[in-house]
Amino acid sequence: MNTELSPSQFRDLAATIEAEVARVIVGQREVVRHTLIALLANGHLLLEGLPGLGKTMLVRTLASTLRLDFTRVQFTPDLMPADIIGTDILEVTDTGERRFRFHRGPIFTNLLLADEINRTTPKTQSALLEAMQERQVSMGGATYTLAPPFLVLATQNPIELEGTYPLPEAQLDRFLFKINVGYPSANELVEIMARTTGAETPDTHPVTDGDTVLAMQALVRGVPVATPVSEYAARLTVATHPDNPGAPEIARRAVRYGASPRGAQALILAAKVAALLAGRYNVALEDVRAVAPAALRHRLILTYEAEAEGITADAIITALLETTPEP
């Protein structure tokens, strides 16, 4: 049964979670904060970065801190949809009767780490679509509900690396956030070596559980949003479309397709979490602006010319934030 939380309890608990994760993860404060925001907004997360930057360790550490069931699936070119979802197995009962029994795959967990998701084929990538959107799996005419909380935290390598497949746009849109994981500084690298090459390595201790996570997610849903703030988020979203009069010049020139309504939903849900983390029970414009890059960058489909010129989605979002009128 879910526990009821106050906004102050929410903030204190979130701070405790971040501090516990920091025992293992060096630096990457913004990455940790945005990962926590996505989790508390009940949204899936895509982490992109070069191999070896701690993406997998971050997800594993978070699962341990939250005392949630955790499953890691290494995505490879030969991975099949049944390897993730599960499959029907023909078995013979004691009476000699033959029947199919559904053998559950690793997707039946709380936190599913889809490691290097873009190293498998689009067919297998798409196997996650129903689970990510509906929190359920369909197989053989039957539907199986995934127990809450259920979140996909996927890591991917930059598509320029060998052996990668770009994620389908429909699947990208189902991720609440896309977070770019950068390289650590020299001082952070020294600390990483100190923590990981000695006789003992740091470990985390659980600070909460699944019921409390669900209570935190429920509190997020109840945070009020003033109409002007919702209208601002809507203007930001529609300004990503090149044919919209409010789109900045760079968006008209560089964007093929803009963000879907899921982008606006992601802005508001993530902004609610940001407001609670700041100690407020109402969403401000600054909360929307703070989460806009992570919520929108993977929803902008750029033109081939823009990609050739090196124009990034983040540059377009920066222009959006500078030109979109505030209430």
Brief digest:
With 327 residues, the chain is α/β, with parallel strands linked by helices.
Structure description:
With 327 residues, this protein is α/β, with parallel strands linked by helices. The protein has two domains: 1-77 and 106-196 and 206-221, 3-Layer(aba) Sandwich (Rossmann fold), CATH 3.40.50.300; 223-327, Orthogonal Bundle (Helicase, Ruva Protein, domain 3), CATH 1.10.8. It has helices at 7-22, 29-40, 55-66, 82-85, 122-125, 129-134, 169-172, 186-196, 210-221, 227-238, 249-254, 261-277, 285-296, 304-309, 313-323, and strands at residues 44-48, 70-74, 86-92, 98-104, 111-115, 136-139, 142-145, 151-156, 175-180, 255-257, 301-302. A five-stranded parallel β-sheet has the order 2-5-8-1-9. A two-stranded antiparallel sheet has the order 3-4. The protein has a two-stranded antiparallel ribbon with strand order 6-7. Helix 1 (7-22) crosses helix 2 (29-40) and helix 12 crosses helix 13 (285-296). It is globular. The mean pLDDT is 85.
